[in-house]
Amino acid sequence: xxxxxxxxxxxxxxxxxxxxxxxxxxxxxxxxxxxxxxxxxxxxxxxxxxxxxxxxxxxxxxxxxxxxxxxxxxxxxxxxxxxxxxxxxxxxxxxxxxxxxxxxxxxxxxxxxxxxxxxxxxxxxxxxxxxxxxxxxxxxxxxxxxxxxxxxxxxxxxxxxxxxxxxxxxxxxxxxxxxxxxxxxxxxxxxxxxxxxxxxxxxxxxxxxxxxxxxxxxxxxxxxxxxxxxxxxxxxxxxxxxxxxxxxxxxxxxxxxxxxxxxxxxxxxxxxxxxxxxxxxxxxxxxxxxxxxxxxxxxxxxxxxxxxxxxxxxxxxxxxxxxxxxxxxxxxxxxxxxxxxxxxxxxxxxxxxxxxxxxxxxxxxxxxxxxxxxxxxxxxxxxxxxxxxxxxxxxxxxxxxxxxxxxxxxxxxxxxxxxxxxxxxxxxxxxxxxxxxxxxxxxxxxxxxxxxxxxxxxxxxxxxxxxxxxxxxxxxxxxxxxxxxxxxxxxxxx
Length: 494
Hints:
Elements: H1 7-23, H2 37-64, E1 73-78, E2 88-92, H3 96-113, H4 122-141, H5 145-154, H6 156-166, H7 171-199, H8 215-232, H9 240-248, H10 251-273, H11 281-302, H12 309-328, H13 333-364, H14 375-378, H15 380-393, H16 400-415, H17 417-443, H18 459-477, H19 480-486
Antiparallel strand pairs: 1-2
Helix pairs in contact: 1-2, 1-4, 2-3, 2-4, 3-4, 3-10, 4-5, 4-6, 5-7, 6-7, 7-8, 7-9, 8-10, 9-12, 10-12, 10-13, 11-12, 12-13, 13-15, 13-16, 13-18, 15-17, 15-18, 16-17, 16-18
């Protein structure tokens, strides 16, 4: 009987159902017209239960996934808005399934972390996050290109509100800058979609690489898709919005930006940009390599100019964006697998780093690295978790960070040893800086207010940091948990 369930559609719409239930939780006030704790607890519990059920439902997709085929599975079809050329056609392959799991997992992590960190408009926060989860799941599941584009644009709306409502002092400016960059860049994708709709009415993602295109068509279609996706992943020179937004957004928002937007951009590059390069790749590849290296070098240089921990990790994201893009456009399977694995790995690492920064700020009220120190003595458990995330970032063997770096460098060595050496040197220098960064925080002299009592992470924070740390180690030791899925999607470089 379970075989007849529209399990993928259920996974996509369950967060929307949860958001609806949250909206109906009645507000309760005490005699002083203050919202009661029971009301807040009920809202949080509905959010937790919904995200938990969605996560476990997505795990059922993994259990039922057939690893013997490269075709789309869990195929579900409906003539939804067919009069407008939009068909509800969803399915999963070995590329989209890991990102589905990441989305459901990190939505749950963000809601758990926000339990004691979000204090205003809690109902609205839960609704916004659950809607974002549903849109993101729809995006990664879409087979119809028009449907993909709808979700591609719609995910901007909840992120816009997360920045604008729960951000810092300059949240309004940051939210509008984010929306202007990402929304208007979406138009670049809309134009090639309309063109593809004209020449091939179905616009089936699974068949997009079989569309016959001229040399000029390939150039213009690639530019349209790449320009839109480059802004989403904050590739140079479109990185300025990311730094400003990270500075204002709450910790859960930073996790969303690093996990969802980066993965959406990388996923889109693989799905849509590369299929149009059958004849023009030799023209495009050097340009992409140049842009990627500029992003890496820019991010690397900028981390030395800032003392704010959040800005430092934001620039690390830009570095990783460049590395991932290099791997995607190297045009061999090892680099591609390395880039996808690195996107997944960076999701865990960046989430851990941003949560760690959130913990630091909550306890010290500063993110200035010059004021922080002696955490190894005052917060020993926290220091252990922090070094795990840093070692994963620098690519220590037995961590997930090592696998991505290794596959990308190995793939590049076959194509271009000079690029490999340059990339390796940059990674080494970043590693040295991050180790100095850890030494300063954990063993350096603290300059924060002596009257401020520092306590180690509580049970909730420890649980989240422990889960992320264990996943980094598990996927570092057993990378085939992910790599096996990457052999099950129908994609080849032309």
